[in-house]
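With this grant's support, we have settled on a layout for protein records. An illustrative entry appears below exactly as we store it:
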Amino acid sequence: MLIKNIEQRIKINKVVSLSTIAFAVFIVIAGFFFAYRMIEDSRKSIYILDNGVPVLAKQTDVLLNRPVEYKAQIELFHRLFFTLAPDDTYIKDNIQKSLYLIDDSGKKEYTNLKEKGFYNQIIASSSMVSIHTDSIALNMEQKKFSFFGKQMITRKSSVITRMLITEGFFEDIIRSPNNPHGVILKNWRIINNEELSNQNKNSY
């Protein structure tokens, strides 16, 4: 009887010991997990000085915002490249800014339009060129985009509306003052730029 009691106590002690060890291991792992989470959260915390007073700002996950930045970059490039005024300096400045956002395919299209006399016609006819973005489609797997919009050419006597569909690819690069989104557009080309309407202005 005494031997059985001793055996039972030994078994109970083993169970208690193993349970204690398992619980201790669980506590240690949980501690490491929560510590890691706290470190990650602290890395996303940014303090901004407002008149010398630190203000806490939360940094959002870059991956969540990246598609928004891709679309913003695509829209910005098209707006700079196609927003033109009858001013040679204004045109060159806008084109120069747009070329920071794209590879040599942008320079090739600019050279092509220049050789066709497009920019000289804008200046000679005192035209204003602007675009309206309808939508931007992204293929995240292929890193490919399609831009859908309209190009408006406003002259003294008429307003010409042209379809504007382009496509290309995008790639992440280091952010810079000239490329704050850190995105470079590649292999860009105009798919469709046909005329949709040509409306005469009313003259009074």
Summary: The chain has two domains: 1-58, 65-200. Strands lie at 45-50, 53-58, 128-139, 144-154, 158-172, 183-192, 195-200. The helical segments are 2-43, 62-82, 88-99, 104-115, 118-124. The domain at 65-200 is CATH 3.10.450.230 (Nuclear Transport Factor 2; Chain: A,).
